[in-house]
User: Which sequence fits this backbone?
């Protein structure tokens, strides 16, 4: 029993681990979810692809235009300048324009914020993207052609080791910070977007319009579970996929067994049973909450051990 | 009716109108900027935000409807980011950066600039003296591909020709300029970036670059061309070497504040000072661009020593006054 309890505590911790709190000036901590490393990598790849496409298009365009009029050298300089501007200003431009988002980040639903809850300053955007030069372009340069970086020998070795360390930096800290985030004091979070769903107590009322609860539960039956189970049940009830139905059947049987529900509920009535149990349990737990007692989960029996 | 007596449900029903109104505004503002909201809405938004914030506090303590709490968390966070953001266009931000932030940031690392200049000069002097005593040292400081024809074996005439591109230089110089720019800015960025390795590679890089210059100077000095070389170098070097020194200083500043965070935590110190260092490095990119143009165009086109010295020194004076006096009379911004 205690090992399952530990497991559950551990799984709750993994969720908590990805949450960061930002204290607003009003004194209310706002929770944000850290962006996953994979998502960030994907966002960068999308941005780099967009840049590559821009470069190819501009090379083709400039070659065609200047090729006709025979000013090839001028075209070449133009191309180098376009590369320079894309490489240095692409990320800065979009992060300034879109409040900490680039096309790649927007696609993946990520956002740059200030780690200390202050506004994301334009200075921070410049600083964090300056570091991309050494996090993305320098390692690429070293990888593809050693001499392109204009350094040699011992320095090149230094540069390589160091560039690789910087590339791997986000994997070495709990906030997934890259070097640019470190110096700019920024954090990349998942853009919070949650739709306000109908309250589960309301949903059933619309569905059957009954005034009398169909199932009546005793106090002991309600004491079997706590907040954790209630919210798991909520997620289950909101799950509209076909597997959700099957899961509800299984969960319903488990609940009936646990609370010792006497008469069997037919499969088609299962949703109504679960909804009713959810409502009654929530009402009870919430009223306990108002009295200052929060029953965390089914193992929480009120005696404060730790 | 059991449902109606659930208090958290009543709480929600009473307030959700305002929540969705705020959500609607936030959504539009996120998509097309705060300017897309009407003045009435702009006025209303902070109030709705405060309302949602207090709803969140209450919901956290009384509601067990996870969806409502999560929704409010997300809504409040979005509104918070929106209200606490700087509404600047990229152009304004860039202008502000160049006019205000860069000089201020440069001034804030002046101690590191002293150190990086000292290291650079040390390298320069060491190489100069060594090469003067024994020209064999030359290639320990200058890599052969960078030296080109400029080597101890070359005659004074050949070296002099190299300084005044007369016949073949002009046709390729523009491309040369752009490439040089790319090369130099990479050296600079490297000096900055390697500051993360506790500054040691930065010092090494500054020293070797100084030594390279010192070796050059010694070589030309031995052939009696020091003054001419000076002109050749200073026209762009005053900009470029300043930028390299600044980049090195920025790297050193990062290292310093990481190692000795002072009153802040280590990470916070890095965030405060690293940001400044990053801004300095950004300013240096612009300087390298200027230096590249000077090196490619001005140096090849201007062959008079006096004019070269004049341009180089006045540019140096310009950079100096920009860093010393720039951005002083701006209102102190929110660049924290």
Assistant:
């Amino acid at each position: 029993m205690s090992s399952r309890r530990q497991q559950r505590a551990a799984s709750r911790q993994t969720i908590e681990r990805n949450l960061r709190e930002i204290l607003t000036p009003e004194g209310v901590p706002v929770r944000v979810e850290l962006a996953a490393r994979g998502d960030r990598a994907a966002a960068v790849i999308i941005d780099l692809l967009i840049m590559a496409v821009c470069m190819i298009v501009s090379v083709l365009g400039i070659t065609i235009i200047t090729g006709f009029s025979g000013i090839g050298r001028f075209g070449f300089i133009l191309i180098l300048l376009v590369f320079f501007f894309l490489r240095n200003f692409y990320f800065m431009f979009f992060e300034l324009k879109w409040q900490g988002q680039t096309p790649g980040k927007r696609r993946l639903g990520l956002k740059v914020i200030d780690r200390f809850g202050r506004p994301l300053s334009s200075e921070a955007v410049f600083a964090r993207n300056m570091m991309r030069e050494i996090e993305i372009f320098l390692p690429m340069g070293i990888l593809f052609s050693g001499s392109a970086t204009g350094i040699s020998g011992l320095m090149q070795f230094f540069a390589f080791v160091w560039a690789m360390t910087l590339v791997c930096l986000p994997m070495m800290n709990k906030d997934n910070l890259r070097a640019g985030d470190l110096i700019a004091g920024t954090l990349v979070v998942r853009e919070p977007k949650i739709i306000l769903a109908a309250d589960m107590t309301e949903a059933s009322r619309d569905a059957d319009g009954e005034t009398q609860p169909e199932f009546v539960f005793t106090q002991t039956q309600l004491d079997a579970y706590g907040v954790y189970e209630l919210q798991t049940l909520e997620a289950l009830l909101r799950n509209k996929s076909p597997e959700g139905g099957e899961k509800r059947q299984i969960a319903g049987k488990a609940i009936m067994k646990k609370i010792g529900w006497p008469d069997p509920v037919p499969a088609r009535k299962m949703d109504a049973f679960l909804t009713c149990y959810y409502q009654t349990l929530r009402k009870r737990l919430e009223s306990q909450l108002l009295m200052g007692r929060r029953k965390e989960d089914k193992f929480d029996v009120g005696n404060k051990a730790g | 009716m059991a449902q109606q007596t659930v208090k958290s449900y009543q709480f929600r029903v009473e307030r959700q109108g305002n929540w969705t109104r705020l959500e609607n505004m936030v959504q539009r503002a996120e998509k097309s900027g705060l300017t897309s909201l009407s003045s009435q809405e702009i006025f209303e938004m902070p109030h709705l935000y405060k309302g949602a914030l207090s709803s969140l506090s209450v919901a956290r303590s009384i509601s067990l409807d996870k969806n409502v709490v999560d929704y409010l968390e997300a809504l409040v966070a979005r509104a918070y980011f929106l209200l606490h953001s700087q509404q600047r266009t990229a152009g304004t931000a860039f202008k502000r950066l160049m006019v205000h932030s860069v000089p201020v940031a440069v001034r804030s690392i002046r101690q590191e600039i002293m150190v990086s200049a000292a290291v650079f000069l040390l390298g320069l002097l060491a190489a100069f003296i060594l090469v003067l005593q024994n020209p064999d040292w030359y290639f320990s400081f200058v890599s052969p591909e960078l030296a080109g024809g400029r080597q101890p074996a070359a005659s004074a005439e050949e070296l002099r020709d190299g300084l005044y591109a007369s016949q073949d230089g002009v046709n390729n110089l523009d491309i040369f300029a752009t490439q040089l720019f790319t090369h130099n800015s990479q050296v600079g960025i490297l000096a900055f970036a390697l500051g993360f390795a506790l500054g040691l590679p930065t010092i090494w890089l500054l020293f070797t670059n100084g030594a390279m210059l010192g070796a050059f100077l010694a070589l030309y000095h031995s052939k009696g061309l020091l003054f001419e070389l000076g002109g050749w170098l200073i026209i762009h070097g005053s900009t470029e070497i300043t930028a390299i020194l600044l980049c090195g200083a920025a790297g050193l500043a990062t290292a310093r504040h990481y190692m000795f965070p002072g009153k802040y935590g280590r990470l916070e110190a890095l965030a405060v000072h690293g940001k400044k260092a990053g801004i300095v490095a950004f300013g240096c990119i612009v300087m390298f661009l200027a230096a590249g143009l000077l090196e490619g165009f001005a140096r090849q086109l201007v062959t008079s020593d006096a004019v070269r010295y004049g341009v180089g020194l006045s540019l140096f004076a310009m950079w100096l006054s920009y860093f010393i006096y720039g951005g002083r009379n701006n209102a102190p911004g929110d660049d924290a």
In short: Residues 200-290 of chain A form one domain. Chain A touches chain B through 88 residues (CB under 8 Å). Chain A has two domains: 37-190, 200-290. Strands of chain A lie at 19-23, 29-33, 110-114, 186-190.
